[in-house]
Design goal:
The chain has helices spanning 4-14, 23-30, 34-46, 74-81, 106-109, 125-133, 148-157, 168-187, 210-220, 240-243, 269-279, 299-310, 319-326, 355-372, and strands at 20-21, 50-53, 57-60, 84-87, 98-101, 117-121, 137-140, 161-163, 196-197, 204-205, 225-228, 234-238, 257-258, 263-264, 283-287, 293-298, 328-332, 335-341, 377-388, 396-406, 410-419, 422-434. By secondary structure, the protein is α+β, with helices and mostly antiparallel strands. The chain has 4 domains: 4-60, Arc Repressor Mutant, subunit A, CATH 1.10.10.10; 66-187, HprK N-terminal domain-like (Udp-n-acetylmuramoylalanyl-d-glutamate--2,6- Diaminopimelate Ligase, Chain: A, domain 1); 192-308, CBS-domain; 319-434, Hotdog Thioesterase (Thiol Ester Dehydrase, Chain A, Roll). It has a 6-stranded antiparallel sheet with strand order 17-18-20-21-22-19. A 5-stranded mixed sheet has the order 4-8-7-6-5, with helices on both faces. α9 (210-220) links the parallel β10 and β11. It starts with a helix and ends with a strand.
Length: 437
């Protein structure tokens, strides 16, 4: 039977897009406490089912698919530009596909306005009307208002009219930045993108006898299985170490390791990989928001996915992408030497190489060094910077990595940063090595 929390989520999902939602109304309709209703609405917001907008309230929105992540809703535009809704509230859930800056005569706008677009313009009332008639929403800059007739038309057409105190140029830059941020987020691989659903995996119930562990091991050749209770909540994990010397008829819960490390679908793959290497874990259960088992990820799955990501072209470029793309490498005998120009994006407010960029240099050159030696992938555990001098913009720096110690599973690397043969930075990286599959 579904819990009250699940019942509320199912109810919210069944509502028509654009419906307004309140804690009090949900509590009344489903006969639950307001606290339970509030928690469920917050969960729905995390899942992208609803959106809460200041001075508007919480509304049911269309859940975004990851491939359309770069498209923003009008509700999100309000948050980006700190806007106020003047009319057309019922259309806030809609998605815009492009925006048009109205720095032209009204007749010329007709060529650019289309359904599901957004016109960014000042207090030109006729242009507001024209945009709405063409199926576009309106964002009025400079803090201006519009006519009551325009607001009524917006309400009739369910097309939002939003006012913001920012100027047109600033608004366009803010929206562009938001779309770019969405593109970068779209590229981040999450556990939910690669996990194996529980229906295709193997797990144990807490009251199962240990004999079932042996049965699963013969079937799968694996030796680690999550343990769940009657509600499918993850309560432990059983490995071959846990069952040594134990009788086959005792319940699994007597030998399992309690409170195992778990992840959510929303956990980033990079974080999960680092945690699995750090803790020496081969598999991790994946839970939903109610701590119930929904699947598993294995170390091998994670590494394969990360290696696949590294080979993909990227749409949204992060600072790390810019830094690593600038690095070139050459061989000096048996030594690899990396070099890069200090570009404006790599500097701090003083125009010198930032400490964060130095850290990115350290991790990237260390990783490339080990890849060149065919030693597997690197997971950095500790980076100690113990010397750095200012390096000005447009200067070229060289990075010299040198392995101090290397075992089967760990490595210690010394990194020196030079500018014109003068040492300007020193650091040591300690990390773990993970085999490529």
């Amino acid at each position: 039977m579904a819990t009250k929390h699940e019942q509320i989520l199912n109810h919210i999902e069944s509502l028509i897009i654009g419906n307004k939602i309140s804690v009090r109304q949900i509590a009344k309709d489903l006969n639950v406490s307001e606290g339970t209703a509030y928690r469920a609405i917050k969960e729905a917001e995390n899942r992208g089912l609803v959106s809460t907008i200041e001075r508007v309230g919480t509304i049911r929105i269309e859940q975004k698919k990851k491939e359309n992540f770069e498209h923003l809703t009008y509700a999100e535009i309000i948050g980006i530009v700190d806007g106020q809704v003047l009319g057309g509230r019922e259309g806030l859930y809609k998605t815009l596909h492009k925006f048009v800056i109205g720095a032209m005569k009204t007749d010329a706008m007709l060529r650019y306005l289309e359904k599901d677009s957004l016109l960014i313009i000042g207090n030109r009332v006729e242009a507001h009307r024209l945009a709405l008639e063409e199926g576009a929403a309106v964002l009025i800059t400079g803090g201006f208002d519009t006519d009551e007739s325009i607001k009524r038309l917006a309400d009739e057409l369910d097309l939002p009219i939003i006012s913001t105190s920012y100027d047109t140029f600033t608004v366009a830059a803010m929206i562009n930045r938001a779309i770019y941020d969405q593109l970068i987020k779209k590229e981040i691989v999450l556990v939910g993108d690669i996990y194996t659903p529980y229906e295709k995996t193997h797990y144990l119930h807490r009251n199962d006898p240990l004999q079932k562990w042996y049965h699963l091991k013969d079937q799968t050749t694996h030796s680690r299985y999550p343990v769940v209770d009657d509600q499918m909540r993850v309560v432990g994990i059983v490995t071959s170490k846990d069952i040594i010397g134990k009788a086959n008829d005792i319940p699994v819960e007597k030998v399992m390791t309690k409170n195992p490390i778990t992840v959510l679908k929303e956990t980033s793959l990079a974080y999960a990989a680092h945690m699995m290497v750090w803790e020496g874990i081969e598999i991790v259960p994946v839970e939903d928001g109610n701590h119930r088992l929904i699947g598993l990820i294995s170390r091998q799955d994670v590494l394969k996915a990360l290696q696949h990501v590294n080979r993909q072209p990227q749409v949204g470029e992060t600072i790390d992408d810019i830094i690593t793309s600038e690095l070139s490498v050459e061989k000096d005998g048996s030594e690899l030497i990396f070099s890069s120009k200090v570009t404006p994006q790599m500097t701090n407010a003083l125009g010198t190489l930032s400490n964060g960029v130095f850290v990115s240099f350290i991790t990237e050159v260390s990783s490339r060094l080990l890849t060149n030696m065919k030693k597997g992938d690197l997971v950095a555990e500790n980076i100690s910077i113990y010397f750095i001098k200012p390096v000005q913009i447009d200067n070229v720096v060289t990075v010299h990595p040198k392995i101090l110690e290397m075992g089967r599973k760990s490595v210690k690397i010394d990194i020196e940063l030079y500018h014109e043969k003068e040492i300007v930075g020193k650091a040591i990286l300690i990390g773990q090595l993970i085999d490529r599959y």
